[in-house]
């Protein structure tokens, strides 16, 4: 069975290249730790002990985790055996922003977060129902699709990701909203927005905002203790110069993660918006990367992201107003129950 796991924007190759310039953390200064299995394991555990942000939220005793897994590691372990032990330890976090990569030769990747079925959404299925379609990017993998549904005046807007700079979305959204302003209602499809830049999410949400509203606060680890955080940063959604304030349904699913979820938080402040579909993925924090002594790469959550009321949805996800879960079999047979439910909301059925 194919399963969905939260992915990070950008390629592994890019991450490895960037590490050459940005990996000046404590493990990279002074004398380098030996690239042995035991040393690499201890550095991995220590990096999380000092920098991971969600131990208290997850009520996880990381010292007890060390006591469980350290005895399994010796310098006689093969790479695959060490990778298996590290992966088993990281599974305790159940965090979609935590992953471990062993570069080539023998490439392996482990993702800590939960798995959800793939195939519960098909953009091609929806594009076949549009009488007018505007596409930005390659036709087979568009970055943005918008238009009108056949025999209706209901608009549709799809974003593939939020990984570009905020200015990119400001320009593209201006064009899309100018076109969609002639529609009576809009379905915004956020299914599959796996991540990107939270500032870009903020910009896109501003095109649907009527007032300036606090929607999120974040803080980041700034010391080795599990409770060591910097001050809260407050995030506001601000109305764009041109906005769409008519009824909107936002579609979410378990493929809506990271910046897709902070976008959803911002859209929840708009009274004209209804949410239909499945829970979002449940992985909000940023996840910087670190290189281990043996050259492996690990990503971890280092932030604490909460809504304006101080509630964290890490590991839970955001619940829609109307829960509608597509199955891969339904989508394969040409049925999108979430879209049908969105039409019901907008048409009062």
Automatic annotation (TrEMBL):
GO terms for molecular function: serine-type peptidase activity. InterPro entries: ClpP/crotonase-like_dom_sf, Tail-specific_protease, Tricorn_C1. Residues 1-26 form the signal peptide. Residues 118-325 form the Tail specific protease domain. GO terms for biological process: proteolysis. It comes from the Bacteria. Keywords: Signal. PROSITE patterns: PROKAR_LIPOPROTEIN. SMART domains: TSPc. The keyword Ubl conjugation does not apply. CDD domains: Peptidase_S41_IRBP. Pfam families: Peptidase_S41 (PF03572), Tricorn_C1 (PF14684). This is Tail specific protease domain-containing protein. The lineage of its organism: Bacteria, Pseudomonadati, Bacteroidota, Cytophagia, Cytophagales.
């Amino acid at each position: 069975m194919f399963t969905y796991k939260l992915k990070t924007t950008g390629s592994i190759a890019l991450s490895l290249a960037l590490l050459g310039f940005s990996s000046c953390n404590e493990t990279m200064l002074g004398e380098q730790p030996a690239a042995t299995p035991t040393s690499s394991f201890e550095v991995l555990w220590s990096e999380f002990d000092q920098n991971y942000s969600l131990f208290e939220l997850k009520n996880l005793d990381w010292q007890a985790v060390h006591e469980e897994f350290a005895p399994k590691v010796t310098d006689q372990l093969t790479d695959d055996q060490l990778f298996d032990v590290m992966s088993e330890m990281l599974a305790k976090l159940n965090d979609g922003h935590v992953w471990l990569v062993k570069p080539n030769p023998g490439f392996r990747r482990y993702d800590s977060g939960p798995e959800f079925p793939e195939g519960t959404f098909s953009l091609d299925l929806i594009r076949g129902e549009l009488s007018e379609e505007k596409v930005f990017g390659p036709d087979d993998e568009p970055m943005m699709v918008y238009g009108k549904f056949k025999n209706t005046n209901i608009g549709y807007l799809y974003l593939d990701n939020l990984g570009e700079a905020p200015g990119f979305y400001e320009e593209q959204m201006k064009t899309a909203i100018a076109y969609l302003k002639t529609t009576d209602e809009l379905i915004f499809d956020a299914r599959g927005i796996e991540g990107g830049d939270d500032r870009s999410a903020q910009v896109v949400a501003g095109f649907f905002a009527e007032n300036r509203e606090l929607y999120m606060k974040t803080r980041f680890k700034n010391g080795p203790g599990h409770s060591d955080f910097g001050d809260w940063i407050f995030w506001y959604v601000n109305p764009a110069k041109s906005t769409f304030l008519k009824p909107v349904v936002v579609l979410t699913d378990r493929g809506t993660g990271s910046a897709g979820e902070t976008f959803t938080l911002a859209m929840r402040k708009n009274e004209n918006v209804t949410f239909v579909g499945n829970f979002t993925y449940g992985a909000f924090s940023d996840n910087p990367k670190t290189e281990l002594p043996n050259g492996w790469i690990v990503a971890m959550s280092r932030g604490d992201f909460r809504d304006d009321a101080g509630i964290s949805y890490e590991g839970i996800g955001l619940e829609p107003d109307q829960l509608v879960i597509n199955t891969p079999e339904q989508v394969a047979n040409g049925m999108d129950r979430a879209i049908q439910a969105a039409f019901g909301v907008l048409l009062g059925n």
